[in-house]
């Protein structure tokens, strides 16, 4: 089911910029579904799995209790691309069903409206990242043994959840670039957003690879 449209607005011409902006979540979700559905068929599963499944595992789980370890590689770009699409869809869902409703109740000005949307999206993402990151710290034993952070450095092997966390983080910050277009962000607001998004990507990429 597609996202709801605001009533009272004219339908823009198909293939126009406004049409793409209004329907970007539906379009992107359809593209993402192509990869998911591709996993269901034997012919397309190998190609679809390149975008959906984690790759570059360096160990195999011979027993159910064994942990599979991963490293980074070129195929991570494909996986990041898929979750980049998911991030765009989730952004639109949060905007449509939560932030827009709050905006209408609060009767915010256009300037405050933009800031509220940005802060709301980041707040939800930060909370999820904090809880998820804390869970990984507990699971991998970093809390009780902080020296694991620098022992046997460089750490070229990661657990599934550790790798998945970085993939999602990179995908999220990459999706912030097209959101500047989808959300019709003003030029004077673009520069600071681009700067902090780029900084996040640089540091996360360095942490992931190093």
From TrEMBL:
Mode of membrane association: Multi-pass membrane protein
CC annotations in GO: endoplasmic reticulum membrane
Pfam families per record: TRAM_LAG1_CLN8
A biological process term (GO) from this entry: protein insertion into ER membrane
Subcellular location: Membrane
Residues annotated as transmembrane: 27-54, 80-99, 120-138, 158-174, 194-209
Domain TLC intervals: 115-209
InterPro entries found in the cross-reference section: TLC-dom (IPR006634), Translocation_assoc_membrane (IPR016447)
Keywords of the record: Membrane, Protein transport, Transmembrane, Transmembrane helix, Transport
Family from the record: Belongs to the TRAM family.
UniProt-recorded name of the protein: Translocating chain-associated membrane protein 1
Organism: Araneus ventricosus (Orbweaver spider)
């Amino acid at each position: 089911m597609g996202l709801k449209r605001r009533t009272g607005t004219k339908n823009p011409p198909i293939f126009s910029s406004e049409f793409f902006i209004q329907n970007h979540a539906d379009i992107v979700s359809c593209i993402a579904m192509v990869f998911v559905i591709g996993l269901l068929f034997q012919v397309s599963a190998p190609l679809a799995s390149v975008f959906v499944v984690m790759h570059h595992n360096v160990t195999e789980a011979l027993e159910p209790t064994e942990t599979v370890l991963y490293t980074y590689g070129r195929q991570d770009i494909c996986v990041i691309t898929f979750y980049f699409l998911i991030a765009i869809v989730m952004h639109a869902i949060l905007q449509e069903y939560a932030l827009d409703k709050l905006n209408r109740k609060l009767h915010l000005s256009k300037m405050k409206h933009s800031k509220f949307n940005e802060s709301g999206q980041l707040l939800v993402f930060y909370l999820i990242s904090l809880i998820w990151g804390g869970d990984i710290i507990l699971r991998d034993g970093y809390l009780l043994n902080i020296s694991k952070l620098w022992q046997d450095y460089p750490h070229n092997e990661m657990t599934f959840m550790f790798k998945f966390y970085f993939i999602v983080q990179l995908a999220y910050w990459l999706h912030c670039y097209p959101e500047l277009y989808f959300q019709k962000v003003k030029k004077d607001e673009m520069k600071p957003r681009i700067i902090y998004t780029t900084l996040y990507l640089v540091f996360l990429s360095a942490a992931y690879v190093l």
